[in-house]
Amino acid sequence: MCESTNGSGYQLIEDCEATNRTLYKFYAAVMIVIFILALPLNASVLHLFIFKLKFWKSNTNNVFLFNLVLADVLLLFCLPIKAYNFIRGERRSANDTVCKAMLFMLFLNRGASIAFLTVTSIDRYFNVVHPGRKNLLRALKKSPHISIFIWLLLLPLTIPTMLKNFDCCNSHSPQPDDTLVKDVVDSMREVVFFSQIVIPFVILVYCTVHIVNRLRKKTVGDRTKLRRAVFLVTSVMVVFSLCFLPCTVARMVLLIARVEEWPEAWQDKAAVAFDGLMVLSYVDCLLDPLVYCFCSTKFKGLYLSNYFPFLLKDGHVLPDSSTGNTLPPPRNNVI
């Protein structure tokens, strides 16, 4: 690995080494905190889906939500390795096999998390905006077929990212041996990265706007259900905007810095910012269970009765924050 530096004292970004050791140690500490907090939360939800809800027998979104939690759990196991590399002053593992395996796991499970967030929002959109209309998603959600299809679709999209220079943010960087094939591969990687975020974000905006409009036009009927749907999709929008949009913007700035051949010191600062915002995106693993699982009063009651029974009073769940009503404990394995 080259150890050359430029006149400003910054290492060349191609070295894949952290130029600010203190800052990268802070990134590592953040990832460790995320791992410590999110792992037991996701594991408890996963346990509930498998042993209490028996998600494979459910008629609701349980299959989607199970896959969402599964993707987050698998992603979490990458964080200690990533934190270890950052503590050592490495932006990625020096071991080629570990590096590619990490990239595969990070992008596959991150993409799956985004995909199942989006699919669940689409399902809620159809239930609220078009409650009587038949749709393919409603027919398939009762079986694991659509979930298997999503995982299989993500596999080939993950392959272009399994290269070390992607992890070190070197797409379209000027190289003496640049070829047309390299430019095509670089562009393909970036298309995959941006499409995994931009397309779901557009879908989420569309679903949110139409569900909110539906609530405004609703004058009679169950407005509480609609309010909960609005709370759900709005929360997803906030989480998505917080976790994924910043790193997308940072990636765009970094690509502009590459193509425009900014000074190496500025390119390095852009890469450091991108790494930090990628760490922020992992907070999604901590927020997903809170947004999707606990927005359901039935699931919340089931979760409390299994893991925090001391919060229950006389067989009743504590008042629901969204409605102010006291709800009985869940009787069915349905979210």
Automatic annotation (TrEMBL):
Keyword list, A-Z = G-protein coupled receptor, Membrane, Receptor, Transducer, Transmembrane, Transmembrane helix
Location (main, coarse): membrane
Provide any one GO MF term from the record: G protein-coupled receptor activity
Membrane-related topology note: Multi-pass membrane protein
**A GO cellular component annotation in the UniProt record:** membrane
Domain named G-protein coupled receptors family 1 profile: residues: 41-292
The record's comment on protein family reads:
Belongs to the G-protein coupled receptor 1 family.
User: What name appears for this protein in its UniProt entry?
Assistant: G-protein coupled receptors family 1 profile domain-containing protein
